[in-house]
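Below sits the subject:
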Amino acid sequence: WKAVPSDSDFIIKCVKKMIQVIDGKKELPIIEGIDESCHKIMQDPVHYPIFIAEKKENNEIVKLGAAISNTQILLAIGGPYLYVQEMYVDDKARGKGVGAALLNHVEKYAKENGYKMVELTQPDASSKYHEERTKFYARQGYNISGISRSKEFIQI
């Protein structure tokens, strides 16, 4: 479940596919600096735990999805929490429990390592699969707790 450096290409592909779905593009986006950024976070698995969902099929490992997270400290909860910054499940694996299993594994890791909470930000309501995504997170016990705001300085 924990990512290893050889998972980097798969992780990058997941992030690009996630952005492709959110933005409704026909092609994978070109993201300047993604390779270097992925390499950098892979070097620090304590602060950037990454999880890969996979299954064994015909004696081969098939990767199904990824959750990229980072650790933060929130004074309001009195300690550290795990933030799932990006999560993607391959189209062929959707609706088969892969996302729930991946998220459950992230939560188990967080509990075992003393994190007080798992947080994530869902893409905005105009993005593809918004209704399905909202229902999925609600079934997993995630509550809407605010509005995320961001200001980008680069164009993706």
